[in-house]
Each structure stands twice: as C-alpha cells, then as structure tokens.
Amino acid sequence: MASPKSSTRPSQQDQEPTKFQDFFPTMAGKLGGDGLIEELCKGFELLMDKDKGVITFDSLRSNASTVLGLGDLTDEDVRCMINEGDFDRDGALNQMEFCVLMFRLSPELMEASRCVVTEVIEEEFSDCSHRQ
C-alpha cells in the first residue's frame, strides 16, 4: 500500500510543459472559412467592452477569468496579449485585429496562408509573363 506521501501524481516540478495543441486548422476544416470567421467574431463579442465595441485591458482582464477560465493572468500578461495584436497602437483590439491575431497564433493556419499567397503570386507572375 502506498503511503500518503508517495502520490502517483507527478509534482509540479516534475511535470513537463504541456505541448500546444492547435485546434484552429480542425475548426477551419469543419466550419469552412466563413464559419471560422463567424466563430471568431462571436469570441470577440464575448471579450469586448460592450460600451466601447473593442477589447480593452479591463474587458480582457475581467473576461479572461470568467469566459476563458484564465484567472491567474497578471496585469502584465493581459497587457502583452493586447499589445501583441494592437496594430494601430490605440491600446485596444478591434474586431479585425483580434481575428488577425487569432490566425497569427495558429502556426498551421499561418503556414497554409503562406502557401496560398505564394501560389497566387506565382500564378500572377506566370500570367504576366505569358501576356508579354
């Protein structure tokens, strides 16, 4: 019989970091492009400040714990999350910035996007060279 001190659960120190699992490609495959954007917009609405229509520090701070279950985020964590996607540097995330950020955080979707853009550029150059 195991003693109370010899738990079979690994201690906090022994645990390996959890590997990031990117579910965005699966969602995109099941929902399609329009469906994925619709779901991202719903996520934006859950996190935004209802009066301002953008995700602010305060709205993300309060919703991170209630909606996302991330109650242990520090103020610095929240600032970093806002800054990561705040392209116009107004201190908040509008809907477009949020959607772009979500795509940027998905390594597989970013790679797929690069491939599509590369194909389009190659086709465009190919078309141009055939016209001349």
From TrEMBL:
Keywords of this entry: Calcium
Pfam family of the protein (one): EF-hand_8
Residue ranges of domain EF-hand in the record: 73-108
Bias (Polar residues): 1-15
Coiled coil spans: none
Ligase keyword on record: no
Region (Disordered): 1-20
PANTHER family reported in the protein's UniProt record: CALCIUM-BINDING PROTEIN KIC, CALCIUM-BINDING PROTEIN PBP1
Protein's UniProt name: Calcium-binding protein PBP1-like
Phylogenetic lineage: Eukaryota, Viridiplantae, Streptophyta, Embryophyta, Tracheophyta
Gene: LOC104761466
